[in-house]
Amino acid sequence: MNTETKSKKKRVLTALLSISFLVISVFYGLIVRPLILGQPSLPLEIVFLLAASLLVFQLLCIGINWSSIQQAIVNKLGQALPTILLLFAIGLLIGSWIMAGTIPMLVYYALQALSVEHFYLLCFVIPILFSICTGTSWGSIATIGLVLIAVATVYQADVAIAAGAIIGGAYFGDKLSPLSDTTNIAAMSAGVELYEHIQSMLVTTLPSAVIAAIGFGLCDLSYPVNYAISTQLIETQSLSNTLVHIEQLFSFNLLLLAPVMIILFGSLMRMPPLPILILSSFSASLLAFIVQNLSITDIAQTLYQGFNVSMLASGELLPQNIGQLFNRGGLYALSSAIMITILVFVYVGALDCISAFPTLMGSLLTRINSARLLISSTLFASAFTNAMTSSQYANSFIVAESFKNKYDALRVDRKVLSRSLEDSGTMIESLVPWSTTAVFIYATLDVSITDYWHWQLLSLINIPLAFMLVFFNKGFSQSSSNSNKYAQLKEEHA
C-alpha cells in the first residue's frame, strides 16, 4: 500500500469518526434513553453540543489549531445567519398576524366554510396552493398551516394527521414552485435549467402527491373528524361559543388581508423573503393599532414575547381553547429552533476543517460504475448529508459538486441529479427529529415529529418511490452522446 493510498484511507477514517460523534449522540440521546432505558430523551441542544465538543476535541488531537477551527465555525455560522434571521422574522409574523386579526379572521371563516367530511384532504391541498404561490414551505406552514391547525383543534380533529397533511402539502408546493429557494438551488448546483428540474421532479413527486391525496381522502373516511359531535357543536355550544368569542375579540374587515397580499406579491415578484416578512409584520402591527385598537405597549409586547388574548379581553373570562389558538408568536417564539440551528452549524462548521463530507463522497464515487448505482448513491448521499447538516442548501452544493462529473461520465442527464437532491434531501428533513425543520414545525404548529411523522405521507411515499424507479430502470435514461453539454458550457463560462 503506497503513501497516497494510506493517506486517503486515513482521511476517510478521520471523516467517519467525526460523523460518528453525532450518530452516537443521537442514538444514545434520542433512541436508547427513551426506548431502552425508559429515561427522558436528551434535549437536541445537548445532543449537538456533545457531538460538537467531541469533534472539536478530535480536531485538536490531530493537530488542527483552535484558531482554524473557530474560523471554520464562524464561516459556517455566517452561512446560517439568513436562516436564523428568517426564524426570528417568522416569529414576528405569527404574533403580528394574530394581533392584527388576520389569522383569527381566517380561522373564523374557515371554521364555517371548510368541509368537515374532507378536512384532512383539504389540509393537504390548501398548503399546496399557498406554497406554489409563495415558494416557501416554512412560510406556508407558519401561516395557512397555523390556521388549519387552529381549525383542527376546534373541530376536535386529529392534529397529527392534519399536521402531516399540512407539511406534505407545503413541501409539494415548494418543490414545484419556481419561486422556491431550495428548488432554484438544486437546479443551479447541478447545472440544470430551472424548469427542466421542475419537470424532472414531476416523475416522482406528482405520483407521490396523488397517492398521498388518496391516503388523506381515506383518512377522512377511516378517521373522520368527529362528525356527530361537530354537527352538534355547530348547532349548540362549543363551536358556536368559539366563533362568538373570536368575533367579539377581533374586528374583521378586508384590510386584514393586506399582510397576506404583501407576502403573495413579494413572492410573485421574487423579492428577498426576509424584508417581505418584516414588511408584512409591520403592516399587521399597523392594522392592530388601527383596527383592533391595541396600544403601542401591547403591540411591542406581542412582537417581543407573543400575543395574549388578555390584551383584547378586558378582564373577560374566555374559554381555554381561545388562548390555545391565539397565544403565540413573538421574536423568541422559535428560540429553541434558533439555538438548535446555531449548534448544528457549529458542528457542521467544525466538520469543514477536515472536509468530512467531500472526503466520504469521493471515497464512495470510486466504487460507482453504473447509472443505477450512481442514482441510488446520490439518493443515499443526499438523505445522509441533509440529515447530518440540517441544511438543504449545504446538501445541494456538497452532493451536486461531488457527483455531477460522474453523471457526465456515465452519460446520465444532470436533471436526474437535481431531482435526486430533492427526492431524498428536501423530502427527508421534516422526518429527521434533530433537524431545524422538525424543531420549527413543533415550535409553530405545536405538534411533535413523534406524532406526525407517520402521517407525512408525501415524504414516506416519495423517498421509497425514487429508489423503486431506479431499481426498475424507470425515470432516467443513458444517452449515447453527452446530454449535459449545456451544463458544462455554462460552467466553463461562469
Please, could you describe this protein's structure?
It is built from 25 helices and no strands. With 494 residues, it is an all-alpha fold. The two termini are 40 Å apart. About 1% of the residues have low confidence.
What proportion of the residues is helical, as a percent range? over 70%
Question: From N to C, what is the helix and strand string?
Answer: HHHHHHHHHHHHHHHHHHHHHHHHH
Mean pLDDT: 85
Structural class: mainly alpha
Largest sheet, in brief, is: none
Please give the structural blueprint.
Layout: H1 3-36, H2 44-61, H3 66-100, H4 102-113, H5 119-134, H6 137-155, H7 159-176, H8 181-190, H9 194-222, H10 227-235, H11 238-249, H12 258-268, H13 273-290, H14 296-305, H15 310-313, H16 320-326, H17 335-351, H18 356-365, H19 371-389, H20 392-409, H21 414-425, H22 436-445, H23 449-452, H24 457-471, H25 485-492
Helix pairs in contact: 1-2, 1-18, 2-17, 3-13, 3-14, 3-17, 4-6, 5-6, 5-7, 5-9, 6-7, 6-22, 7-9, 8-9, 8-20, 8-21, 9-21, 9-24, 12-13, 17-22, 18-19, 18-20, 19-20, 19-21, 19-24, 20-21
Tag the structure with descriptive keywords.
494 residues, globular, mainly alpha
TL;DR of this structure?
The protein is mainly alpha-helical.
